[in-house]
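cron nightly-structures :: item 1 of 1
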Amino acid sequence: EHFGVEGRIYAKLEYLNPGYSKKDRPALQMILEAEESGELLPGQPVIELTSGNTGTGLAIVCRAKGHPFTAVMSEGNSMERARMMRALGADVVLVPQCPGSVKGQVSGEDLALVEQRTEELTRELGAFRADQFKLDASYRAHLLHTGEEMWEQSGGEIDVFLDIVGSGGTFEGCAEALKAHNPEIRCYVVEPENAAVYAGEPLRDGGRHSVQGCGYAMDLPKVKRENIDGLVQVSDEESIEMTRALARLEGCFVGISSGANVAAAVKLLRGAERGKTIVLTLNDSGLKYLSTGVFN
């Protein structure tokens, strides 16, 4: 009602997971599947690059399962995430950003530096790489669980699913699960305006934006283009304003990617999907963004 649109938005509150994000799901799935296959041996170290959320989930799972865990993260991400991972028992390696990068705006170039350091440390530590961009378990967590829960909890009353893509696991897993129930459900990829590569747009401002953990301006191995029915772009300003509005209007204290998802949903309800029912995730907790100025 506040935004003057017709329709309904169902939101899964993924910030209520133990690590305060949806990434707890692929973290658990990757470790369980690797142990079952024998790729991950008892007591073997685990490593992964992260914007903070997958690392938090892995820190929890690895501590419980007896694996030393190292998280590799860009210095451009909010420091609450590094502190939380360390508190949970992880070693955290921070990688400097590219020259000219802006704190709080992690670009694809910054991520490439984190990837390079992660590969080096994987070899040095003899670690298992819990690669959220490449391992099937990273999207299977959402195929087997998140998407099925959306269907069951909504009673199948879903017209549209959308997600702002980071690794792409949530989009692909949920899209596959929902389309298996009803092929007519339309699935939209959401991207930051400055890094709308799926929309075929040139990068703006070097692809830099404020939606941490998403919009890395890269082709994502886990996203199947045949499951993309549409594309939506959101600006930093729209994402941040919606993040603030969710706290004030809905009592949902969430991060910027959650605001981006809801901002995209409101855009669709104003246009192509007027009057429809949209399902999405609220991805992580606003507690991870207190140092960013979002809530100032």
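cron nightly-structures :: done
Residues 73 and 94 are 5 Å apart (CA to CA).
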